[in-house]
């Protein structure tokens, strides 16, 4: 996010100030619409890290009915190793990330390229 905001020209912000916009108005009307692709990329990364988190649910969740998919996969590996069930569980665990990526692929690629300072 920082790299993206550094690439926004200061002339754009100065022009908004000359037009009478305050800091909140500059952020709301200029910075936020320009940063949508980067925000989508950050949202995808945040969802992925939360979805794949293993340690926090292991520590905080005590009841079996509220455990996450990742803990369920670990439980399958611990009880018995029937690989067909483990691989079906992996598909269930990966499917939401794949769907989310394909829905927001355009924003994700655009946000990564803008945030990394790549022009093109």
Structural features, described:
With 120 residues, the protein is an all-alpha fold. The chain has helices spanning 2-7, 10-18, 23-34, 36-51, 55-60, 69-79, 83-103, 105-115. It has a domain at 35-115. The chain has eight helices and no strands. It is elongated and about 70 Å long.
Main sheet specs = none
Radius of gyration: 21 Å
Structural class: mainly alpha
The share of residues in helices is: over 70%
* Number of H- or I-type helical stretches: 8
Low-confidence stretches: none
Distance between the termini: 18 Å
**Beta-strand content bin:** under 5%
State the shape: elongated
The arrangement of helices and strands along the chain is HHHHHHHH
Mean pLDDT: 84
Q: What is the β-strand count?
A: 0
Oligomer: single chain
Keywords:
8 helices, 120 residues, mainly alpha
Put the structure in a nutshell.
The protein is mostly helical and 120 residues long. It is built from eight helices and no strands.
Spell out the blueprint of helices and strands.
Blueprint lengths: L1 H6 L2 H9 L4 H12 L1 H16 L3 H6 L8 H11 L3 H21 L1 H11 L5
